[in-house]
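User: My advisor asked me to double-check a structure prediction for asparaginase before group meeting. I don't want to rely on an old file, so could you generate it fresh from this sequence?
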Amino acid sequence: MRIPLRSVAALAAALGLLTACTISSDSSTADQADQAQNLAGRVVVLTTGGTIASTADETGALVPTVSGTQLIDSVRDRLGPDLDVQVREIAQLDSSAMTFRDTDAILRSIHEALRDPEVSGVVVTHGTDSMEETAIAADAFRPDARPIVLTGAMKPADDPHPDGPDNLTQAIQLAANKESEPGAYIAFGGATYPARGAYKSHTTDVDGFARNAPESPSHPAPLALAPLESTRVEIVAAYPGAPRALIDSAVERGAQGLVIQGMGAGNVGGELAAAMTDALAQGVAVVMSTRVPEGSVEAAYGGAGGGATLQSQGVISSGYLRPAQARVLLAAALATGTDPAVLFS
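Assistant: Sure, here is a fresh prediction for asparaginase from the sequence you gave:
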């Protein structure tokens, strides 16, 4: 039997043989038949809205309208008779509107689904705007070794050539794979990305995700599930001449943690540096990330706002994680009483 390309990609990712590989999204009828024969077990699909579940209204604006059952019905013939797919609708949201309350609801639903020992894995359909945040939250709070796979779409459900059905099939296929490595993944555009370091890399391309991470990154132990909703972590963007008021106002509003979107390898100007020092003195956790798409934050430079100086004062490097995911991990650390440095190591 010929194994379809999507099966190869999903299996390779599950075995840790790749971190991301791009596979053609074209799938023949024969390939789909092979996929159907290979899938077995039970997968729970949690739906939250997003473009994958959206259609155009009378003005042409996209709004989530497609139910979870309708999403599965669109790919049912690709899944075969031996796979039990259970659908649970969590929300109908544009993911840019999500808050930590919504993240908490998704995490609780993941844990509830995985209480069933017959479940092979969980799929979460999600908008792409904040998919990377939910993915790393799912990874940080993963309850066991079974895969958690997020997916979505760049094209709406009523597009003449929607990408959602292919992405959803790919995600279900990975979640059904009992050889998967522990952790959360993003399955999108024929590629599979481990959650840590994944980010949306293009606003419209159907393969619009990428990953900034070393080949063999460390993977901290999972945290006990805790709500994130009441944890205040803000992102502050550095730029030449940025005033300290950006940080001071965040602290005054009750921020428990700050993620700084630094310049270069993790540097800021003098005013922000002084405000960061004061925030640390007040017990506010501070993590340094960067606005640069690729590479790692390095404590290399001296001077008031240099990375080496800030690290010596207690600022934590986000490593290869960018601000969006760093914010979620810092919130997870604060919510569970975990040393943030452990999660960023």
